Amino acid sequence: MNSDDIAQYLKDNPQFFDQHAEMLSELTIPHPYGGRTVSLSERQMLTLREKNKELEKKLHEMIGFAQENDELQHKLHRFTLALFGAHDLIGLQDIVADNLREIFSVPHVALHVWKGLPPSAEVLAFADEHKQPVCTHHVVHDTAGWFGEEAPNLSSFAYLPLRTDEKSIGLLVLASEDPQRFYPEMGTVFLQRIAETVSGALQPHL
After folding, report:
1. Which of 16-20, 122-126, 161-165 holds the top average pLDDT?
2. Could you read off the pLDDT of 164-181 as tens digits, one per residue?
């Protein structure tokens, strides 16, 4: 019989210690953080304290995530309200770029609307193909030129296709010198909300 067999036996026979109650006071086991031994009850207390610390850590992480989400929701609300100040397409494009920089601290923003500024066939195909934001460390097709002389310094990009129904109407690109600002594995829920908000604001001007 090995240790696994003994452990399974005790799980299957919880009455064992009722029948041998004296063993509970006699058992000693190694202290997890020292060379001495402790009683079974002391070891259980140590285990409970460790579990409590783990639960507290998880709770703090959850609170941190909740606070971060609340902050993002507040920023998105401010961003949405700012778009109501636009009176024409050019003004709206300026407001989008300025507020993404100010509210979300995005260092570089490029917004191209197909009306009056048709994209290349490759960029159009990319925007039509992707219904969700795409985060990458590489420039997509010929969009590097959208950032002018800053383009060689950029290391991460978020491409947000702007759509009306099933048709793309433009492309919003966020970029940064920091390679960890946007990366392929990151969540895109809030990026998608930004894309939907901008798409909705653009439609009356198209």
Report:
1. 122-126
2. 877 899 999 999 999 999
Map the chain to HEC letters.
CCHHHHHHHHHHCCCHHHHCCHHHHHCEEECCCCCCEEEHHHHHHHHHHHHHHHHHHHHHHHHHHHHHHHHHHHHHHHHHHHHCCCCCHHHHHHHHHHHHHHHHCCCEEEEEECCCCCCCHHHHHHHHHCCCCEEECCCCCCHHHHHHHHHHHCCEEEEEEEEECCEEEEEEEEEECCCCCCCCCCCCHHHHHHHHHHHHHHHHHC
Cα–Cα distance between 136 and 141 in angstroms, integer? 12
- Give the model confidence (pLDDT) of 70-101 as tens digits: 788 889 999 999 999 888 999 999 999 999 99
Domains of the chain, with CATH numbers?
1-83 (no CATH), 87-205 (3.30.450.40)
Q: What is the pTM of this model?
A: 0.69
